[in-house]
Amino acid sequence: MLPLVLYDILSELPGNNFSPNPAKPRFVLSYKDLPFVTLWVEYSDISIAMKSIGAKPSKRRDGSDVYTAPVLSDPNTGALISDSLEIASYLEKTYPEKPIFPNNSEPLIRAFDSAHFGLIRPALKTLFARTAEILSPASAKFFIGVRSMDIPLPWDGKYDEDWDLLEKGYNTLYELYQKTDGKWIMGDTFSYEDIVIACCLLWFKRILKEDEWVRISSWNGGKWAQVLADVEKECKLA
Ligand SMILES: N[C@@H](CCC(=O)N[C@@H](CS)C(=O)NCC(=O)O)C(=O)O
After folding, report:
1. Which residues form the GST N-terminal domain (predicted)?
2. What are the pLDDT digits (tens) for 107-149?
3. Fold designation for 102-234
């Protein structure tokens, strides 16, 4: 089997990875024991690089085309897929061993995926401000330009308010975990939703100041550091 190719985003952090959307296919590929290589792209070059390989664009708020990462290229089938959720869906259909959408759960997990993002969305100012700090100067400038179309500037100065909003979101998620018995969001059954939750936590751990990550780790009895560690272990990434 030829290694699949995952396009991920560069940062100035050791080991590069930080971005939650490319992290999701990385976790899926590793969970499913599929061989893959990672090609790293500067945030400011994503559109040029993804257009040049023939990836499919999506739309920005203003209607213009945007090419995003992650993109997955599978030389075994010729597939070239954009969007983390579509990549997960493709990998599940093409490589069904070790399911990530068990018991036909893909429709429910798709719905949960956007609900989960809704819990984090209120705190995006602080998260975007921290993300810009770990990019190269050119990518940080580009990132601030495009992301401020969704979340208007200024991004700093509201840290306390954002922390409260983020904690509220995680309290809601914690309540959902209390409805099941096992360590996963679907009880004893591991799924893509666990990967979605973990990849967001990984983003926080990578971009935030150490004391800020410690703060999140302390919420809900240390639940979130534990979830990240459990999912990384399950996906053989720890
Ligand atoms: N829904 C997409 C979102 C991907 C996305 O927005 N990627 C960002 C980086 S995390 C991107 O490539 N942005 C490029 C740009 O805005 O120019 C997914 O899940 O893959």
Report:
1. 9-99
2. 999 999 999 999 999 999 999 999 999 999 999 999 999 999 9
3. Glutathione S-transferase Yfyf (Class Pi); Chain A, domain 2 (1.20.1050)
